[in-house]
Write a structure and sequence with these properties.
335 residues; eight-stranded mixed β-sheet; alpha/beta
């Protein structure tokens, strides 16, 4: 996301906002109806951040959760969304006072006022926005937002996490083009495994005599849950019914991104670059044929698409002085 024009693959438009909201509803069904993983104590959350929030639909729905309605305790949880662009934010006048959206590029450190402020930080589907060289620093910046003992929830899926059965030439071409575009933009072809490794590589700064009851080591993040959720044999019938539309809408958006960039490259060439123009023209013709076939649903008439989503939950270290005997309570607070 350090450069929207060359890194982030998708457009920012009314149509794309509608696609993202529809994708959110489908992914909520894939997540068994949960916005927050059941291992995270949702009623105890007092501050929640959503990074790369887009339209803010996940954050808005969470803020409406009745479990946060605690007027008797005089508590009003805070919800903060961050994105590199405000173009898809909902109108400020339509938001409750405890829900705000801020412009921020997560390649850069977040303002210190947000450091260690949040009980939960949520991130979803940013594999098309993080360059390979930026992954570690992005994770560092996001982890800085989490208070000690707080949680990180991260969900990802990639083109490489999808497959058609039986495999068709259109399906193979579609996935190959999207992966090629990610590589051309410096993105990771598949983010799940590098992401988990990077989260677990974060280290805590322990002074002499201090201890970390979350992991009893200098690990800053402890993995609380790791799951691959698949559309294949999913218990929700709605997931099975909706997977075709989910795949086609994402595939067409991503293919159009590559076609648009390659068309710009073609248009910028002079007539003296005839050989290069010829090669680009052939690639554009092939990609447009693939796009037309995907939009018609040619391959879904003869095969079925499925895909996996990686669901990560990790908890941040709690640093205690040696004289503190309440490490059990710190590690597992009473509800």
């Amino acid at each position: 996301m350090s450069n929207v024009g060359t890194t982030y693959m998708l457009p920012r438009s009314t149509q794309e906002s509608q696609r993202l909201d529809a994708q959110h509803e489908y992914m909520r069904q894939m997540s068994y109806g949960h916005l927050v993983h059941p291992s995270i104590p949702t009623p105890q959350l007092k501050a929640v951040a959503d990074v790369a929030t887009g339209t803010g639909v996940w954050l808005r729905q969470l803020a409406e959760d009745s479990r946060f309605d605690r007027p008797a305790k005089g508590e009003q949880p805070n919800f903060v969304g961050f994105d590199i662009s405000p173009q898809q934010f909902p109108p400020a006048e339509a938001l409750p006072s405890n829900l705000t959206f801020n412009v921020h590029d997560f390649v850069n450190p977040f303002p210190t006022e947000y450091h260690e402020r949040f009980d939960l930080v949520n991130v979803r589907f940013v594999s098309y926005a993080i360059k390979r060289v930026d992954l570690e620093r992005v994770v560092q910046h996001i982890v800085q937002l989490i208070r000690p003992g707080g949680y990180l929830q991260w969900q990802e899926t990639d083109a490489s996490d999808s497959w058609a059965h039986p495999e068709t030439p259109t399906a193979t071409s579609c996935v190959n083009y999207v992966i090629a575009e990610k590589i051309d933009r410096g993105l990771l072809p598949g983010i799940a495994t590098p992401l988990v490794r990077t989260i677990l590589s974060m280290k805590a700064a322990l002074a002499d005599g201090q201890k970390n009851p979350i992991s009893w080591s200098d690990d800053l993040m402890r993995l609380a849950h790791l799951e691959t959720v698949s559309t294949l044999n999913h218990p929700s019938s709605a997931v099975g019914v909706g997977k075709k539309a989910a795949v086609i809408s994402a595939a067409t958006a991503l293919l159009k991104a590559r076609i648009s960039r390659k068309q710009d490259e073609f248009d910028s060439l002079s007539n003296s670059d005839s050989e290069k123009k010829k090669g680009l023209k052939e690639e554009l013709d092939s990609m447009n044929k693939t796009l037309e076939a995907v939009e018609r649903g040619d391959e879904t008439n003869s095969s079925s698409w499925d895909f996996d989503v990686t669901w990560i939950v990790a908890r941040k270290a709690i640093i205690l002085d040696d004289g503190n005997q309440g490490w059990m309570t710190a590690k597992k607070p009473c509800p």
